[in-house]
Write a structure and sequence with these properties.
Elements (H helix, E strand, L loop, with lengths): L1 E5 L8 H14 L3 E6 L3 H13 L4 E5 L3 H10 L2 E4 L9 H8 L2 E5 L2 H6 L13 E3 L4 H17 L1 H13 L4 H14 L1
Parallel strand pairs: 1-2, 1-4, 2-3, 4-5, 5-6
Length: about 180
């Protein structure tokens, strides 16, 4: 399972959570991580350190390229956004469009746009966790990984539902017009 991150490397984007569980994640889990972004020097150094420590599991590009970002969105199985706060968020929308299942913290625009997977009702477009807690994030990643490896049909349905979402301006304008007409 390949998890992608394209982000500013800051506390706001949850890199303190990632740093806290990175050793546990890389040493015990059957997954790989690809990261692209720039930001705070401590997170750039942290990512370089882990990329050197786990060269078969982590690839890091310090910098930003639109082409690379789209390659990450398009090639990963899941996209991680454990943000402390996220007023809107575009990355999760792009990951949904590309069929890359988002794993997000339930905050702001992430909560508004990523519907958590519910295995009983067979609904949802991604995976989410509520509290700003590294181990809650890690458990959510493990849950997503379990679905990815052991319930491939369900994983593919999550992808299909995510890709069917419409966050275009036409859709938003229609919802606004419908609300206006009802009032």
């Amino acid at each position: 399972m390949l998890i992608g991150i394209v982000s500013r490397l800051t506390d706001q984007k949850g890199f303190d959570l990632i740093a806290y569980v990175m050793d546990e994640l890389m040493s015990t889990e059957r997954l790989q991580l690809v990261v692209a972004g720039t930001g705070e020097a401590r997170y750039e150094e942290m990512l370089r350190y882990f990329a050197e420590k786990y060269p078969q599991k982590i690839h890091v590009t310090i910098g930003y390229s639109e082409e690379l970002a789209h390659r990450i969105y398009g090639s990963c199985d899941a996209f991680l956004m454990p943000s402390l706060f996220e007023p809107c968020g575009l990355s999760q929308l792009m990951s949904l469009r590309y069929g890359t299942v988002p794993i997000v913290r339930e905050t702001g625009g992430l909560k508004d746009t990523v519907m958590p997977y519910n295995e009983c009702e067979q609904t949802g477009t991604g995976f989410s966790f509520a509290n700003y807690n590294a181990h809650e994030m890690l458990n959510t990643i493990r849950y997503a990984k379990d679905v990815y490896f052991n319930r491939k049909r369900e994983w593919n349905k999550i992808i299909d539902r995510g890709m069917a979402m419409d966050f275009s301006w036409n859709s938003s304008a229609q919802k606004y017009a419908d609300l206006y007409n009802r009032m």
